[in-house]
Amino acid sequence: MQDQTITITIDEQGHSTLDLEGFAGRSCEKVFEDFRGGDRMKLERKKAAYYTGQQVQQEKSQR
Amino acid sequence: MSKYRVSITELKEEKYLVDALREMGYRPEVHPEAVPMNSYYSEQEAKRANIIIRRHELRGACGDIGFARQPDGRLTLIADELDAYHGYGEKWLGRVQQLYKEKQTLAMARARGYILKKREVIQTKEGQQVRLQFAVRR
User: Fold this and answer.
1) pLDDT tens profile B16-64
2) Which of A1, A6, A46 to mutate to test binding with chain B, by most B CBs within 10 Å of its CB?
3) Could you tell me if residue B100 is inside a domain?
4) B2 vs A41: CB contact, 8 Å cut-off?
5) Is B45 among the domain residues?
6) CA B113, CA A38: separation in Å to the nearest integer?
7) What total number of domains does chain B contain?
8) Cβ–Cβ below 8 Å for B7 and A41
9) Where are the beta strands (DSSP E) in A1-63?
10) Closest partner residue to A12 among B3, B94, B117, by Cβ?
11) Whole-prediction pTM
12) CB B5 to CB A21 under 8 A?
């Protein structure tokens, strides 16, 4: 299983970027919520692994 | 990699803002009820703020700089317009937000059981970036 890593990059223009590795589906939302801190969201992108992970979860639940 | 999100830092929590300002070398006053700020333009109506850095601590500034609590909970910058040209404009505020966000992030991570693996400071064309890497406790 891939390690789950959370990387937060904070710049000097008042922006922060939260990048998740090894997460899929709803586990992403929990981490985002944990680190949100009342900030205003500017942009969100889902990557391929996000959907792949969801598919795996769905397949498991169908069994 | 599965997802990423870009956010704009909102200053809402007094303790992290005060810590950020202290790290920048200031001694901010904290007032539960907003108090008047000193301005270069004495004829102007006095602005009020909850967190205030007095002018004598701000090299080259015309007046005090403060942060006032808004009805929606945000702490917004209150300063003389001229001070934006004296080094207390967007760049200065961005540095405050950066320190605030780092302190807030570390506190949130600690409270929720994430493990800090690495802290890096990266120089870019746009300025300094702080990168924090966390692992999930298993």
Assistant:
1) 999 999 999 999 999 999 999 987 766 566 789 999 999 999 999 989 9
2) A6
3) yes
4) no
5) yes
6) 19
7) 1
8) yes
9) 5-10, 15-21, 40-46
10) B94
11) 0.87
12) no
